[in-house]
Inverse folding.
């Protein structure tokens, strides 16, 4: 049996490359629990965004065929301000099986003093879990308001989180 | 002889790669931000859960979350909001109750504002470093009394969102 420097060098190179690949690809981003985030070769962080008109619903995520849960840690929902009315839209974040994960009001319109409504911004220490093989639906109520809006309220949303280990 | 050398090199390379992989895995398992390390249940499933919905501010209790187990459920995040009420500006006092045994866990006051007021109420959110523990077989209820403020404040529609994790008893 021989053990030369060349074989040792090859072995060390392979080991270091593997170490760099795994550790470099899943380093701590600060928001997600490191012992729980999926140990993939890619960043476990992800985000989704879009818009929906009041009274409508939208499938915002589909985890069909995936093998990890997605945990939402940050949610921002706001309204594109319209004139002539002030009120709120109820936004419900639900799984495809009907389980309601969150319900949040989004404020609309102009205040009497011309103030603008802030977006509804929520962060979670734990999160909103979206299991594998399901869909996530954002459902909005009709606008509850005073006055007469000059057009339908458009809701924008952004959610970010991480892919979790099983 | 060449085959022997190749096999040896391969074996050494695989061993070092395995050690490196284990080392990197060890580095990745730092403390969790959301829940205390080691406290989550090892169910082979995601221990994080959440629930949301709507309730009406009234004197009677409303059920928010029922823990059917296994294990305790620790709530780390609570978010409350209100739909705009036509003629009310004020606060809705909220009490979170454990049942059974009946016990007060938390109190909050959620702002309510009418649609034409000059400010928007926003949502109330609180994040616990520890959390509200709901033992298996118990439930979390809410009592939200009529808003304290000006105008006609009865029947305010409130939203809630709870998030937490399943923990060892």
């Amino acid at each position: 049996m021989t053990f030369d420097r060349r074989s040792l060098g090859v072995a060390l190179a392979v080991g270091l490359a593997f170490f760099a690949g795994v550790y470099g690809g899943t380093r701590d981003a600060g928001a997600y629990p490191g012992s729980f985030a999926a140990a993939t070769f890619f960043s476990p962080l992800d985000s989704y965004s879009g818009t929906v008109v009041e009274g409508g619903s939208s499938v915002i995520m589909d985890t069909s065929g995936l093998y990890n849960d997605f945990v939402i840690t940050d949610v921002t929902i706001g309204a594109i301000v319209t004139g002539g009315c002030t009120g709120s839209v109820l936004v419900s974040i639900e799984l495809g099986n009907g389980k309601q994960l969150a319900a949040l009001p989004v404020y609309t319109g102009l205040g009497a003093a011309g103030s603008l409504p802030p977006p509804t911004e929520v962060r979670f220490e734990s999160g909103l879990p979206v299991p594998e093989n399901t869909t996530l639906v954002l459902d909005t109520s009709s606008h509850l308001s005073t006055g007469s809006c000059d057009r339908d309220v458009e809701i924008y949303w952004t959610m970010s989180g991480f892919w979790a280990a099983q | 002889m060449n085959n022997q050398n190749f096999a040896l090199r391969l074996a050494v390379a695989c061993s070092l790669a395995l050690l490196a992989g284990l080392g990197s895995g060890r580095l990745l398992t730092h403390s969790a931000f959301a829940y205390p390390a080691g406290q989550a249940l090892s169910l082979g499933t995601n221990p994080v859960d959440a629930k949301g919905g709507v309730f009406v501010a009234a004197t009677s209790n409303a059920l928010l979350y029922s823990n059917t187990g296994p294990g305790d459920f620790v709530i780390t995040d609570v978010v409350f909001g209100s739909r705009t009420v036509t003629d009310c500006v004020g606060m809705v006092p909220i009490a979170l109750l454990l049942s059974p045994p009946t016990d007060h866990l938390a109190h909050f006051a959620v702002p309510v504002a009418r649609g034409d007021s000059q400010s928007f109420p926003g949502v109330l959110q609180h994040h616990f470093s520890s959390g509200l523990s709901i033992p298996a077989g118990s439930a979390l209820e809410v009592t939200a009394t009529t808003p304290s403020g000006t105008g006609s404040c009865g029947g305010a529609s409130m939203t809630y969102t709870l998030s937490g994790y399943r923990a060892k008893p």
Chain A has one helix and nine strands. The two ends of chain A are 43 Å apart (CA to CA). The beta strands of chain A are 45-53, 57-62, 69-80, 85-95, 100-109, 120-130, 135-140, 144-147, 154-164.
